[in-house]
Hints:
The structure holds 2 protein chains of 2 kinds.
Chain A: H1 4-10, H2 19-27, H3 35-53, H4 58-68, H5 104-127, E1 138-140, E2 144-147, H6 157-161, H7 171-177, E3 194-203, E4 208-216, E5 220-227, E6 234-236, E7 243-247, E8 250-257, E9 260-267, E10 270-276, H8 280-291
Antiparallel strand pairs in A: 1-2, 2-6, 3-4, 4-5, 5-10, 7-8, 8-9, 9-10
Helix pairs in contact in A: 2-3
Chain B: H1 2-20, E1 33-42, E2 45-69, E3 72-94, E4 100-110, E5 116-126
Amino acid sequence: MAGPDGTRRNFAYLRALSTPRLEELLTMDFPSGGEGEALIEAVIQELLNREDAGLPDVDRAWADFQSRYNVPEGDGLSLYPPEAESGPDAPAKRPKRRRPVPGRAWARTALAACIALALLAALVPAALGYANLAEMVARWTDRSFSFSPDSGGEMDPDLLSKEPKERYSSLQEALEDYGITAPVLPSWMPERSILSGVSVQAAPISKSIRIHAAYFNGTAIQIVLHFDPGAAYTYGKDGEPVEVYTVEKIDHYIFENGGQVQAVWRSGSLECAIFGEMPRDDLKRMIRSIYEEEGET
Amino acid sequence: MRKKLTALLVLLLALLPVLTSAAGAASESRINAYTMKAVSLDSGVVGIEFDVSAPRTMKAIGAQIDIYSGTTLLRSRTHTGRGKFAFGLTSREYLVPGGRYYIEITVFARNYSGQEDRRTEGFYVTA
């Protein structure tokens, strides 16, 4: 009879057999004695070894899984209870992704656009040497104000060669004589204003024409219209800020100088100015009256 | 993202006054408006024009014209009068044709208290 070593040597193939197969071998008839008994002893020993080791039967477990879980009804289902995902062995939680709220994206875009515009409004004029956007058309310091040289229109050459009258009875007459139809004449003047004179002068070198009307109501009020797109006037001013007063989409720049208030603006190729010692509200009323129909003021 | 935008907005608001402020103390001007020009009219002829007005009647109002060739002052002229205006005054200067000149024009207005306001501009002109 083979000893233990001989058994291991001859029946080593039993380790590869499944437990049911080994149990089946035990039910088979073998010739008594000799090789048959040795086989039965080897099978029993193998079964005992497996019980001691507590090893799972891989074939049985696989067959069990196939029959109980790997079925069409189980598609998409988890083998583990939901609480397992939050257990200590569960994978780390991914941060929740917020669902985009309708309108929030629009608000962010609008905010970004506002910031971009504000930056442009503040930085572009500063980069070009102006204090703000309004100064890109007109520029001023504490002491002076002027329009940008290229912000005017074209000068009519016929006006330069025209000989002015020796005397004009009104500013309206001078405007008509020079074919000025643009609204530049106030229909309202401060109380007791009396016209003291209208003059027209042509400057041949600068190719400019100036129409000047002087009024008096206890103090002097002057209206000056200047045709010279290429060489704007420079206006003296105090250190106070310039007020941009917009009427009919035309910016009128109001500031003070030497105790009087003055407004300057451009209307096509005309540079217009009103000077006078009067309340600022009166000056604004004069400006508004330029664009109003008769009887509105 | 929102914090960054807020920080950017705060920074912008903080910078705006700096960007838009006009530094310097207020100073009263005695000149209402002025314009001046020096241009070549013809060969050897330079035209000079100025126009100045004041808010009140001035003891002296006008312009000083200095003509330089290089750094040498060739001639200096002063046009002055009393009143509120010195309008459309034109002068013709006869210089060496082809010569390059620097013409400095200073308009001024001086009141009866002796306070004066002067504004100067310079022009390079070829006669």
